[in-house]
TrEMBL record, chain A:
This is GntR family transcriptional regulator. Pfam families: GntR. Residues 9-77 form the HTH gntR-type domain. It comes from the Bacteria. The keyword Secreted does not apply. InterPro entries: Tscrpt_reg_HTH_GntR, WH-like_DNA-bd_sf, WH_DNA-bd_sf. Keywords: DNA-binding, Transcription, Transcription regulation.
UniProtKB/TrEMBL annotation, chain B:
GO terms for molecular function: ATP binding. This is ABC transporter ATP-binding protein. PANTHER family: ABC TRANSPORTER, ATP-BINDING PROTEIN (PTHR43158:SF1), SKFA PEPTIDE EXPORT ATP-BINDING PROTEIN SKFE (PTHR43158). Residues 2-225 form the ABC transporter domain. Keywords: ATP-binding, Nucleotide-binding. The lineage of its organism: Bacteria, Bacillati, Bacillota, Bacilli, Bacillales. It holds the Pfam family ABC_tran. It comes from Rossellomorea oryzaecorticis. InterPro entries: AAA+_ATPase (IPR003593), ABC_transporter-like_ATP-bd (IPR003439), P-loop_NTPase (IPR027417).
Length: 121, 235
């Protein structure tokens, strides 16, 4: 089935986020080739122009590079990848803290909750 | 570019389209959204030269639309019109004989893509496969304008999915202008560049799909609901 997209973000950004997560999870390795624009459009159920925008955006962020006549590849630049890793982790942590704050928890309580979870309680 | 200039279409006492001025830019994919009876089909038929405006003008690439526009416009009707005794292959040959721009190779490729047996008789096809065949015949024409009237109507999710995938695979993005009239948006939202809402024969809204998310945080479906909320329609 074609994938679902949330309303709050442009679709090209959501697809870029998915690719970034794939890279962070190592499902996509440095130097791996991304599907062609048309293939990716079919997989994602979206207009190829949207994928073109996704790839351009990733290229602008130095996460991928397009080699003429060959396609689009995940960067092999270690520094870019480690910055990316940290950035994604930071986003996840921020989201977690935001959610916990909404529940009215203090920083101390969040730490306790995490420790408890870590011990499997 | 397709232009409607102050177009009105009346049927007897009813008005299907009222004083409408809109345009569809070359190479874009448009959704024409709205409930049944809102004027979507009438709009498409006027581009296809099958309905003549009561007043105003419709032009395709600056040429006033007449029935001869069929050379330049491929139209998928919401109705199901086939010769029952023909095979799929026979229907493909018939289309090829009617439209010089018909690409047989593409039709066979599409049949394979959609897993449709070309030796099967049309009367033995399931509803889903009839829907697929309609799309194959329309997409196999090399026209600048492609009009699809309710391509998903009454079809199950698997068929819808294969239709969306074949649209993405076989539309010539950037060259073909595609207008898809539908009230089922989920499937096609991702392939649209822009959308118009039509309601009671009037254009009630226009959006660029990605901008809508970026600026208003709305999906096309949410936008449609917001725009048409509370509006009852006259029959």
């Amino acid at each position: 089935m074609t994938e679902e997209y949330t309303a709050s973000k442009p679709i090209y950004v959501q697809i870029a986020d998915r690719i970034i997560r794939g890279i962070v999870r190592k499902e996509l390795q440095p130097g791996d080739k991304l599907p062609s624009v048309r293939e990716m459009a079919i997989q994602s159920g979206v207009n190829p122009n949207t994928i073109q925008r996704t790839y351009s955006e990733l290229e602008r962020m130095d996460i991928v590079e397009t080699r003429r006549g060959q396609g689009t590849f995940v960067t092999e630049n270690e520094e870019v990848l480690s910055v990316l890793n940290e950035k994604v982790q930071k986003e996840v942590v921020e989201q977690f803290i935001h959610n916990m704050k909404e529940l009215g928890l203090s920083k101390q309580q969040m730490i306790e909750s995490l420790e408890k979870y870590g011990k499997g309680e | 570019m397709i232009r409607f200039q102050e177009v009105t279409k009346k049927y007897g006492h009813g008005t299907a389209l009222e004083n409408t001025t809109i345009q569809f830019k070359k190479g874009k994919i448009y959704g024409l959204l709205g409930p049944n009876g809102s004027g979507k089909s009438t709009t498409l038929k006027m581009i296809a030269g099958l309905v003549i405006p009561s007043s105003g003008t419709v032009t395709v690439n600056e040429e006033a639309v007449t029935r001869k526009i069929a050379d330049k416009v491929a139209y998928l009707t919401e109705l199901d019109m086939f010769y029952e005794a023909f095979t799929v292959d026979g229907m493909i040959s018939f289309y090829a004989s009617q439209f010089p721009d018909f690409d047989r190779k593409k039709a066979y490729e599409l049949s394979e893509f959609m897993d449709l047996d070309k030796n099967k008789k049309i009367k033995h096809l399931s509803k889903g496969n009839r829907g697929r065949l309609k799309l194959i015949l329309t997409l196999s024409r090399n026209t600048e304008v492609l009009l699809l009237d309710e391509p998903f109507s009454g079809l199950d999710p698997m068929v819808r999915d294969s239709i969306v995938k074949s649209l993405i695979s076989y539309i010539d993005f950037g060259r073909q202008t595609v207008i898809i009239a539908t009230h089922e948006i989920d499937e096609i939202e991702g392939i649209l560049d822009e959308a118009y809402i039509i309601h009671n024969g009037r254009i009630e809204g226009h959006c660029e799909v990605e901008k809508l998310r970026e600026e208003e945080g709305l999906s096309v479906l949410q936008w449609l609901k917001k725009k048409t909320a509370g509006g009852s329609r006259e029959e």
